[in-house]
Amino acid sequence: MLRLTEDLSRFSVKPGVVCQLIELSAGKVSNQDAEAVIFDEWNLEDCPRHTGLYEFFNVMWVEWKNRVPYRKAVGRVSRELWTNIAVEDTNLVLG
Description:
The chain has one helix at residues 79-82; strands at 2-4, 20-30, 53-65, 68-78.
């Protein structure tokens, strides 16, 4: 689940679009109704909370312009998905 930084009316994602995500932190919450207020993905059918515990990574989607990274969105990726993708260490300064 990503929450866009810019105006949503100017944005569309097509299947196959590659997003560069930066891991910011990790978290976990138990399956409680109160969390539905905070987590946009809480009521989606495939949200991992249905197993009793939702483990996730907070991420930032960066987009590069003239070799400078800019924040495009922030959000969460489930621990299950994040641990199954190729991850590399990087250092960057946002523009």
